[in-house]
Amino acid sequence: MTKSLRHGLAIVVAGLVTLILVFLVQGSFESLGSAMHDMAWRSLSGRAQQHSERRIIVVNIDEASIEAYGPWPWPRPVMAKLVQRLNEQGAALEIFDVVFPSAKPGDADLTQALAASPTVLAQILAINSDETIFRGRLQSGLDYPECKQYFDSASAYIANDEKIVGQAAGHITPRVSSDGSVRKMPALICYQGKAYAALALAAVAKGAEVAPALSYQRNSGFWESFASLQYRHIPGIQIPVDAAGDILLPWWLAREEMVSISAKAVLQGEVPPGF
């Protein structure tokens, strides 16, 4: 091997080693940043909110509920009864983070209960995936021609059966980090010329009884987020999003500060006064 060839080979090897080190260091910095992010939220959790959050009450499908009504998923008549009981108890809005993609016995009962109650159902749109699953029918699509300029597009979806229709719907698709944690969620996801809002954004619009129309605005301030979403029909609310169109999930509340109740208690009419 000639001297010039040895020098050339050494340069190539050095370049490859440098690329590997840069890749490893970048991964380490990302992991370190994620860990610091989690520590910060854990330390802040509970300090910003001195009282329990009572605007949202979690209905738990807990061990007592499963023991009383069987394993999850529950039959549709049981879910219909849960929807009806919540409505009777005066719930302003029922937000479901589960999907009903298949037709099953008792669908008519659930459909009737949903039609009589203020409900927001969940749906899932696959992003950055090779999946080609198309189940159910997507609901609450927004006309948003510019969607693909700012947000990811879906390649597949799992929605509710076409007979299971809530008064609104929003996606529960997470943005999974490299370490498997969920710290962000796409604000909107595009599919076939429509935009589908995240469940929380759809719920805010439904609670205000307005269309969930959102406008995108790029920010320029040093301390501002990359961009913001604004409800066109709800003044004063801005949703910060990053360059990928994701919402950062800020865990201001510790889990124990969320008021919750067993689904069994709801179904059996044992909800405490004041709920």
Describe the 3D structure:
By secondary structure, the chain is an alpha/beta fold. It is built from 7 helices and 16 strands. The chain has helices spanning 3-44, 63-69, 76-88, 107-115, 147-150, 199-207, 263-267; strands at residues 53-60, 94-95, 119-126, 134-135, 142-143, 156-158, 168-171, 175-176, 182-186, 188-191, 194-197, 214-218, 227-231, 238-241, 246-248, 258-262. The strands form 5 sheets. Strands 2, 3, 4, 6 and 7 form a 5-stranded mixed beta sheet that branches. A 3-stranded antiparallel beta sheet has the order 5-11-10. A 3-stranded antiparallel beta sheet has the order 8-9-15, with no helix packed on it. Helix 3 (76-88) runs parallel beside helix 4 (107-115). The termini are far apart.
Topology:
Layout: H1 3-44, E1 53-60, H2 63-69, H3 76-88, E2 94-95, H4 107-115, E3 119-126, E4 134-135, E5 142-143, H5 147-150, E6 156-158, E7 168-171, E8 175-176, E9 182-186, E10 188-191, E11 194-197, H6 199-207, E12 214-218, E13 227-231, E14 238-241, E15 246-248, E16 258-262, H7 263-267
Parallel strand pairs: 1-16, 2-3, 3-7, 4-6
Antiparallel strand pairs: 3-6, 5-11, 8-9, 9-15, 10-11, 12-13, 13-14
Helix pairs in contact: 3-4
